[in-house]
Amino acid sequence: MIPKRAIGALLSTVLGLVLLLSFKTPEASGIASSSRTNQAVVDQPVGGKSQSGTSTSQSGTSTSQSGSSGTSGGTSKTATGAQGTSGYADGTFTGQDVSMRYGDVQVQVTISGGAVTDVTALQLPNGDGHSSRISSIVEPMLRSEALQAQTASIDLISGATYTSGAYRQSLQSALDTAAG
Amino acid sequence: MIVHAEPVMGTVVSFHLADDGASRALGDAVAWLHDVDERFSPYLPDSEVTRLADGRLAETDVDPDLREVLLLVDRASADSEGAFDARRWRADGRFDPSGLVKGWAVERAARQVAATTGDAFAIDAGGDVIVRTGPSRSAPWRIGIRHPDRPDRVAAVLQLGDGAVATSAAYERGAHIRDPRDGRVPSDVRSMTVVGPDLTWADTFATAAYVMGRDGLGWVAGHPGYDALAITWDDALIWTRGMDRYLLA
């Protein structure tokens, strides 16, 4: 049932540098019985444990701010025109309204001292149960990502699809506006 | 670095390009993706794929691009022993190569961009990623693997200089992947991520391995240059030995 080459690959698979925080023997699978795959607990703040020394306070910030998913509005400040080292002007900037299959997405960013300090979704798809579920999953995640982008700890995310793309697009247009 | 997001093929494809030569490379790549979308979409009434599925176009009369896709689709099906099957996976049984076309089209776009710019770039096609290093960037790209249900977290971070990363899961579009062999929704793992040199296969392998579940890890590792990482229902990460070299945290 398992191709021969897969078995060969398994045999050549050796337990290496393993984060064996929680090893559980998986049941009923050819892979599991050979026990040569690595396993670790999934519980990782965005950017939290990267080797380049991303600060824990940064990830802590992201985590605490993710609670306000799906909120609309937010205080609007006018741009001061002061430029930080990032090339972004301080202030609050609203991205373009991006229409996607599941609805509209619009993002607002707040820049302080030239750095992105907050990202809020003004609009997310809420038409039906499916869409709102998508919103609740995607928005806070990418919120953290945008904040993390300041540390360049993560360049891209694998596994986010439709809505996140619109989020990115609106976010980018807000940042473009901030960059003037 | 120029960032451009293009809505196409039912998702958004974002390009991260070094400034030199970026506009021409970007224009060509975007035009190619829209061209593929029009010709290969199963949702457009007169696309080549729709006419093929309807029997209005004979398989022997398709253009060279679609012929290549048909060959790749059949190869993927045979290789995965039916876990990936573009001819059977839809509930209505219609031919739909979308599961392979996106990765294939973006991979070809990436090769165009590489040839035009000769420099570093990244393309993110709705969560399927291609990265390259070059003169303007020698550092590897950092790619977060989305956590299935903890929205403020990523489950892992991969470090990759040149290659592709694709993830299959049910978390966003619902249960859009079914096992073509029995029509059931796979439930062994929550998500499956594949890293390798070519997005066509990283994407296709991720879909097939997600259907296979834990067995899919070993199956992916049987392909030279490809490795896999799965997130299980008990919130564990399991990965193939070769994945160690990419796992940053």
Description:
The complex is a heterodimer of chains A (180) and B (249). Helix content of chain A is 34%, strand content 18%. Chain A is α+β, with helices and mostly antiparallel strands. Chain A folds into 2 domains: 4-34, no CATH class; 56-179, Sufe protein. Chain: A (Alpha-Beta Complex), CATH 3.90.1010. In chain A, helix 3 runs antiparallel to helix 4 (129-148) and helix 4 crosses helix 5 (162-179). With 249 residues, chain B is an alpha+beta fold. Chain B has a single domain, classed as T-fold (Roll), CATH 3.10.520. Helices cover 33% and strands 25% of the residues of chain B. Chain B is built from 6 helices and 10 strands; from the N terminus they run E-E-H-H-H-H-E-E-E-E-E-E-H-H-E-E. Chain B has helices spanning 22-40, 48-54, 64-79, 98-117, 199-212, 215-221; strands spanning 2-8, 11-17, 121-125, 128-132, 141-146, 154-160, 163-169, 189-196, 227-232, 236-239. In chain B, the strands form 2 sheets. An 8-stranded antiparallel β-sheet of chain B has the order 1-2-3-4-7-8-9-10. In chain B, helix 1 packs antiparallel against helix 4 (98-117), helix 4 packs antiparallel against helix 5 (199-212) and helix 5 (199-212) runs antiparallel to helix 6. The two termini of chain B are 26 Å apart. In chain B, 56% of the residues are buried. The model of chain B has no long low-confidence stretch (mean pLDDT 86). Classes of the chains: A alpha+beta (180), B alpha+beta (249). Chains A and B meet through helix 1, helix 2, strand 1, helix 4 and strand 6 of A and strand 1, strand 2, strand 4, strand 5 and strand 6 of B. Strand 6 of chain A pairs parallel with strand 5 of chain B, so a sheet runs across the interface.
